[in-house]
Amino acid sequence: MKFFILAYKNLKRRKSRSFLTIGGVAVAVAVLVALLGFNAGYQEALTSDVDKMGYQVIVTAKGCPYEAATMILSGEAGLRFMDEDIYNQITSDPDIDKITPLLAQLAYDPEKQGGKGGFINYLGIEKSYIELKPNVKFKSGGWFSAENANEAILGYEAAESEQKSVGDKISIPDKDITLIIVGIFERTATQEDGAVFLPLKTTQRVFDIEGKLTGIGIKLKQIEKISEFEERLYPIASIQVISMSQVKGTILNLVNSAKILIMSVAFIAIFVAIIGVINTILMSVFERTQEIGIMKAIGASRSDIFKLIWMETLIICTLGGIFGSVIAIFGGNLTELLVRKVMPYAPGGRLLLITPDLLVYSFLGVIIIGIISGLYPAFKAASMRPIEVIRSGE
Amino acid sequence: MQDKIVLEAKNLKKHYHRGSEIVKALDGVDLKIKGSEIISIVGPSGSGKTTLMNLIGCLDKVTAGSLKIGDNDVASLEEIDLIKIRRENIGFIFQRFYLIPTLTVRENVELPLIFAKKNINAKNILDLLKEVNLEDKEGIQVKHLSGGDKQRTGIARALVNDPKILVADEPTGKLEIKVGEQILELFKNLSEKGLAIVIATHNLELAQATQRIIHLQDGKVVPKEKSDLYY
User: Does residue A272 share a domain with residue A215?
Assistant: First the structure.
């Protein structure tokens, strides 16, 4: 039997208290791991979303550029309409490598989600759309038979959730039209997985917005030339040019600001956990004053007592760290669900990236916290004079 | 060995400060204890019994005078050196046993060895448990033991470092008379093997069963006949 077993058995004597303290540490660690994981995951998911989008630049009708950018990232391709002529006007620009027109429309379907109702995102596209997006591939079926056909291609999730396959028919709520599904895209892990794609002309006709677009996606030959490109579009008063790297930076800045607030909450949780640990160990020291005195009487030195009490703290923090990491890993899906519900825009893919490095660092962090929080109770116990504490119990 | 002086106190003093007042808990005690001797220290509350036991047990520092344990004069030693003397020479037994309730009999007995950084020899521990009649209870958590067995565990714990002096504070105080007699019998057996046993007690029957009685009053040793004892 060594000090470790002695410390462990001491903690077992007050099971509920030890368990609650370990729980406090575990929650603090889980919050910290989840937040740091979110930090890394969100950035990676957003970068992946922007990269998969294929566009470096989007042109939308004038309005709030970030609102428009967020809408486009969400697969909704802008809020306001602009004339299709603008597309024809800029398509010959020498700096453009690839360009595609977009027309997004939302329609409320009361039958969606098993009767709960929800919005369906319809995206009018042309063939250039899949040329611009190298990761968009057909899982089954293929491209529309004509540019005005009453046909649809479903995003991966849209097909899965509606249990549709190629050849099935779908209708658009409140529109007297039936569309035949001619293709289903593979999963792209972006918001567009939930969209229903129609030929651009069909979308304009069905939604009665002939000659209108909500956005134009552009890939430049050289992204460095974006300022010159923007300059050339400047005379067109009704549009704005948005660089996706700027959008990414701005979203990350916004997320970072929120993160500072959330991190402060995490640090408060950690601080409360430290106080909890100190309180538990200190109470246990005070309750065992006679015992500590007796240990000294039977030969324990100050350093023995210090080591024993310190080890109790470390056991609490280590177990808290392990449980916290497990909670963070297995509770990750729940956290992700929560984050997706509260965030105005959440990119596709995993938002929480809990790496082994992150777990190791968080674990080391909690051990350091354990070492620090154990100092005072351990010092207090080690300083007890055996004679006084034995007397105090008589 | 058995007639060798294991403890010698000369003009031993322990004074405390209580505010501006100086309390003379022990005020010039002379005492010699031989190996194999069982002595009792008696006296009314506040007479200095506990203080003397603490000084003998190297739990407290001497104010003045000399205190030799074995060949070491402990009066001038610092805490770190007193710990070594304590580990090597002194075993403690308490009225309230002060065992660690979640540990087994064996684990409680092993504690002093762990603190002394000594190797634990399973056979020696078993022999010791046999000596105190606990060989069949070594794996039981001490919280499940009777008072007598708890005190036997305390005695085994006190003996595990092979001390020269056993310091016992009211060792039978919490025990039934019959169990108390068994413990005293055990003390006698141990003393025959050369162990000096110092018992602080209010129990006159226990005191009279020892070989010598030291009567303390107001921090001094007072010569009294056994028959004169009244507390």
Answer: no
Check B157 against A299: CB less than 8 A apart.
no
Same-domain pairing of A312 and A387: yes
Of the pLDDT bands very low, low, confident and very high (cuts 50, 70, 90), residue B227 is: very low
pLDDT of A198 reads 94
What residue ranges define each of the domains in chain B, with the CATH number in brackets?
Answer: 5-100+146-228 (3.40.50.300)
Domain boundary among A237, A263, A294: A237
**Between chain A and chain B, how many beta carbons pairs sit less than 8 Å apart?**
64
Same domain for A166 and A25: no
In the numeric block, which tokens belong to residue B165? 């002096």
| Contact call for residues A281 and B70 (beta carbons, < 8 A) | no
Nearest to A299 among B86, B94, B98 (CB): B86
pLDDT confidence of residue A293? 83
What ipTM was predicted for this assembly? 0.82
Which parts of chain A register pLDDT below 70? 1, 64-79, 113, 343-346, 348-349, 387-394
Query: Measured between beta carbons, which residues in chain B are less than 8 angstroms from residue A386?
Result: 59
Do A43 and A87 belong together in one domain? Answer: no
Block residue for tokens 């309750």: A287
Claim to verify: residue A29 and residue A166 sit in the same structural domain: no
Q: What is the torsional sign of CA A45, A47, A49, A51?
A: negative
pLDDT score recorded for residue A180: 94
Distances (CA, A) of A158 to A101, A119, A154: 22, 12, 6
How many domains does one find in chain A? 2
Choose the final residue of a domain: A237, A272, A301: A237
A177 close to B (CB below 8 A): no
Same domain, A290 and A357: yes
Provide mean pLDDT across the span B169-179.
82
Residue A298 domain boundaries: 3-48+255-392
pTM of the model: 0.67
In a mutational test of the A interface, the residue from B58, B100, B104 whose CB has the highest number of chain A CBs within 10 Å is B100
pLDDT value at residue A302:
86
Burial bucket for residue A185 (CB in 10 Å: 0-12, 13-18, 19+):
buried
> In Å, how far are A384, B13, B16, B33, B218 from B63, measured between CA atoms?
20, 5, 9, 21, 16
Which of B94, B107, B115 comes nearest A299 by C-beta? Answer: B115
Closest chain B residue to A297, measured at CA? B59
Q: Minimal Cα distance from A6: which residue of B?
A: B103
